[in-house]
Design a protein that fits this description.
The protein is α/β, with parallel strands linked by helices and 478 residues long. The protein is built from 14 helices and 21 strands. It is elongated, with a radius of gyration of 31 Å.
Length: 478
């Protein structure tokens, strides 16, 4: 009996200990905000692995589209990076990443990956059965790294690697955090997948705006697509200049809301009521400053801007500069334009050259002057960390904007609209609309104006939204 106990004790002491699980070493991108610009699935998978893993004793390998879902599930469960076999036979990038990771074992998921792995040179053991892998410990969840991704099959491997590394992954609509239903959390490091996120500097600015949580009327922080606007046009207290001046501010709010409601059943996006306020009014006389433009004061405009903000109405300040220039006049209203629900419109019809007079000549402007306003307004929007702001340019003749093809639509702080102002019969209005669309600048949206008195007859809401080739995003009434 004593001998038997001794034998059992000896046996227990000499039994082999279970293997210690291997652990990958995760890392973080070197900068607070990083964009991986590749849109190639193989390259992006490698780049994501390199950004988030220092070492990985086990890696998962699959061919794009070949049991990718199962491979991603395994990678996330065991905490291993997921790489893709290249279709073009160029194995250098994947082999280099496996070497850098120090992978001892590679799980090949699917026939394509197994065939590629068997032909590739490398020190790692290739297995096709998860049970044959050495034991590994997945990295813990970490709050310090956020990965922004797109809802795309091309990013499936990269997003699986990000989750496997313990990072939080957020899929961002349109690759723009300003479009996210909820502002993404801003941790120590943000990594974005794909060129659609822009440069690191652009993404950093968008994240800063998203973090404010400030919303535009109708929701969100990017104007278009995502909403349409229907506006009353005119000058407060001046019925002859448009319907905005036919009633007081509270009645104008209700009238704009009622107009917007007529359009809502026709589109899927929110239709936002708006005011387009003629802020500087073309004048028949030179005035004290000799510019043939009468400028409203900020104090006179503030009640309209404040009432609009409280009612969810967007405001567009419209400039008719006479012999002044658009940028000089726009600067007068910086205090109002610094508010998230206030945009700017430029009306070249009322931009006079020296010696010209209103209603004697139709005004015009060079694109460089418009672009100077775009730069100033975009910089203001960026520096004040504001949601995207509207910049609209009126036009009914091509000659009103010289060099229009060079219109700057590159600043994503702004949504740029070309607004067709023609009036008359339906055929004449549609002819103007078609002419303005010829050789249109890239990146612009379109606006349309309905005239109560001058149109014969005025377009109905359904007719307005059917003008094509795409329906206007901004409709104003004069």
């Amino acid at each position: 009996m004593v001998v038997l106990v001794a034998v059992l004790l000896i046996g227990a002491c000499t039994a082999p200990a279970p293997p210690v699980p291997l652990s990958p070493q995760v890392t973080a991108p070197g900068a607070p905000t990083t964009v991986l610009p590749s849109d190639d699935p193989v390259e992006l998978a490698v780049a994501t692995s390199a950004a988030l893993y220092a070492t990985a004793p086990v890696a998962v390998l699959t061919a794009a589209g070949d049991e990718a879902g199962r491979a991603a599930a395994v990678a996330e469960r065991i905490g291993a990076p997921l790489l893709l076999t290249p279709a073009d036979g160029d194995t250098a990038g994947v082999r280099a990443e496996l070497s850098r990771l120090g992978a001892r074992a590679v799980l090949a998921v699917g026939d394509g990956a197994a065939h590629w792995a068997s032909a590739a040179d490398g020190s790692a053991e290739i297995v096709t059965d998860e049970a044959a892998l050495p034991a590994v410990t997945a990295p813990p969840r970490r709050q310090s790294v956020l990965v922004l991704a797109q809802d795309s099959p091309a990013q499936a491997a990269a997003t699986a690697t990000a989750r496997a590394s313990g990072a939080e992954v957020v899929v961002v609509p349109g690759a723009d955090p300003r479009r996210a239903p909820e502002p993404p959390r801003r941790p120590e490091h943000v990594l974005a997948l794909g060129s659609a996120f822009g440069t690191s500097e652009v993404l950093d600015r968008r994240l800063a705006v998203a973090a404010t949580g400030v919303q535009l009327p109708g929701g969100g922080q990017v104007l278009f697509p995502g909403r349409r606007m229907v506006a009353l046009y005119g000058h407060p207290g001046a019925p002859a200049l448009g319907v905005l001046g036919e009633q007081g501010v509270e009645e104008s709010v209700k009238r704009a809301q009622a107009l917007a409601a007529e359009y809502q059943p026709l589109v899927g996006e929110p239709v936002v009521p708006a005011f387009e306020v003629i802020t500087t009014v073309a004048d028949s006389g030179p005035g004290p400053d000799g510019d043939y433009s009468s400028e409203s004061s900020v104090a006179d405009l503030r009640p309209w801007v404040d009432a609009a903000r409280g009612a969810g109405v967007y405001v567009v300040l419209d400039l008719q500069p006479g012999r002044s220039d658009f940028l000089t006049q726009a600067r007068r209203y910086e205090e109002l334009l610094a508010q998230p629900h206030v945009g700017l419109a430029l009306d070249p019809e009322w931009r006079l050259a020296p010696q010209q007079r209103h209603r004697t000549q139709i005004g015009s402007v060079g694109v460089d002057e418009i672009n100077s306003v775009i730069t100033w307004l975009a910089d203001l929007t960026r520096d004040r960390v504001l949601p995207q702001k509207l910049l609209m340019v009126h036009q009914f003749r091509l000659s009103m904007i010289s060099g229009r093809e060079k219109l700057d639509t590159s600043r994503d702080e702004l949504g740029v609209i070309l607004h067709a102002d023609g009036f008359g019969t339906p055929d004449l209005k549609l002819q103007t609309w078609a002419t303005l669309h010829e050789a249109q600048p890239s990146g612009v949206h379109w606006g349309w104006k309905n005239f109560y008195d001058e149109d014969r007859p005025m377009f109905t809401p359904a007719q307005t939204m059917a003008v094509g080739p795409e329906a206007p995003v901004f409709v104003s009434f004069q």
